[in-house]
Amino acid sequence: MPVPAVRALARNAFAGNRFTKPILGLFACCALLGAPIARAEPIGVTVRNESVSATCAETDNVTLSFVSDKVSRFRIIARHPAYAGMLRVDRTEPDFETCDFSADPVVPATAPAPAGTPPTAIPAPKRITIYETPDLWLTGFIFPSFWRAATVPFRVGTEATQGLHMVQLWVRGKDQQPEEVLVVYPPDGYWRARPLSPAHLASTAYGSSFLLGPVEQAERPLVRLKEIGFAPQTRTFTLSFADGGKARLKIADVDRDALTLEAEFDGTAPRTFAALRSMYVTEGNADVARVSWRTLAKAGTPATIGEAPVLSFTNADNVAMLWAGRLVPSRHNTSAPDFIFDGFASR
After folding, report:
1. What is the dihedral of CA 320, 267, 48, 316, to 10 degrees?
2. 5: left (phi > 0), else alpha (psi -120 to 50), else beta?
3. pLDDT tens string 71-87
4. How do residues 2-46 score in pLDDT, each as one tens digit?
5. What torsion, rounded to 10 degrees, do the Cα atoms 126, 130, 133, 136 define?
C-alpha cells in the first residue's frame, strides 16, 4: 500500500482520531511563544517554501524547510486551532478522491510468497507493546507494506524492537483517559504530534507531519535514521542518523492546549535541520492553509511579522518563529493542530 494511504488509514484506524484546540489567534500565538530557550543565543533561520499545488487531499504537497548552519536547539509546538472551541463535529476520514498512488513504491514487510502460492488476504497490521506503565506506553505497528524497508531498530533501555513501521506514544493526563500524542515512522523519520483533547471533544486528529534531522530528497523528503531510542524517565527520544550525528526530542509539556517538544542536536546540526510536511487543496480542504512568521530583531532593525497563504508564502530569512495552521475549519482533519517552530538557538 502506498505510504500516503498507509498514513491516512493509520491515523484513523490506529490513532484514535483526535482533533485539536484554540490558538488564541494568529498574533496572540506569536506573542506567547517568543521566549528563547535558556542558556543559548537566539538566532534567526531561513524558511524555504517548497510547496506545490495539488488536488489529492492525501498528498503531502506542502513542504516548509528550516535551514541554518548555526542552530543547535529549537522548539516544536502542536497547538489546537483557534476554532477548536467551536467544534461539535469532526471530519477525520481520509479523502482519496482524485488520488492516484499506483506509481508509489511499495516494500512488503515480509518476503513475497513463492511463485504458484495461492493468493491470500492482505494481513492485518501487527501490533506490539514496546513499553508500558500506568501513565505512559509505547505501541509499535508492522504494516503489510510501506514505501521504505523497516530497518530502523527502536530501543528502550537494552531492548531493541526490529521491523517497525510506526510507533505511538500514549500518555495519561490528570483525571483523563489515556491519549496518543506522538507518532514516529522509523523508516522515513516522519513525526506527528497533537495535544491532549479539549474537554468538549472525545478525541482529536493528526494532520501535518514534521521531520527532524538531515532532511534530504529521495522521491519525497525524509530523514534517514540508524536507530531511535526512548528514555521513559525523561520522555526523550534519541535519534541516531544514518550518516552520523544525533538529536534528542523531549516532550517538555503536554496538556489540553498544546504539546511542546524540545529538539537539540549533538555537535553540528545538518544545514536543513527540520521540515514541516502537510497538505493544501483549498482553504476549506487543508491541514495547513496559512503561515505567519516573526523575524529576529537585529542591531538597528526591529523585529517584523508577516503572514501569507501557504502556497503564496515565499522564502523568509532571519525567522525567529513560524506558525503554520488554519483560521477557518477544514473538511479535512478538522481538529488537527497548528504547528509553531520557535526558540531557535545556537550554543
Report:
1. 30
2. alpha
3. 999 999 999 999 998 88
4. 566 556 655 554 544 333 333 334 444 444 444 444 457 899 999
5. -80
